[in-house]
């Protein structure tokens, strides 16, 4: 009976956190602060087996708002410029074949950083610039983990596309898997000097 209660508590926590994250993402510009708060709560679950959601989420959202909001604005600007470059590239004739590899490389770098950025902010008390640098370092050094998270993301999109009702919990499940894999990396790095 006790074991069943723990399972129900865990499942309920996933559902609650996922709904909170969705609600806080509605203004769009708060996606990054909401995501950082979600990853901080998941870190709390993994490290301390503390499955509280609401108070923790609000606390982490408030604590990390400024840093993650700035980071979110930077990411939105990058994504906008990146998208415009791809659209304009179609009109460049043969020059597009030179520009395409450059844009593709930039896109891969942004993707790699994004995979680790939320877990890095949740795990380390660093500014947004250091978080970006550390995320790139982790994603390149532990390429297998980076690849695993990409595969998980594709799987999540496929599941979401097939069963749309999974939106009620799947984002939190993906974030949990993402942080768990990143946490394994942090544990390997911890005995040594973490990158600054």
Summary, kept brief:
The protein is mostly helical and 196 residues long.
- Topology, number of strands: 0
Strand content: under 5%
Average pLDDT for all residues: 88
Distance between the ends: 47 Å
Shape descriptor reads globular
Number of DSSP helical runs: 7
Query: What does the radius of gyration come to?
Result: 18 Å
The secondary structure category is mainly alpha
Low-pLDDT runs: 192-196
The proportion of residues forming helix, as a percent range, comes to over 70%
How is the main sheet built? none
Q: Write the element-wise H/E pattern from the N-terminal end onward.
A: HHHHHHH
Task: Tell me what you see in this structure.
The protein is an all-alpha fold. The protein has helices at residues 2-25, 31-48, 54-89, 96-123, 128-141, 143-162, 170-189. Helix 2 (31-48) crosses helix 3 and helix 6 packs antiparallel against helix 7 (170-189). It is globular.
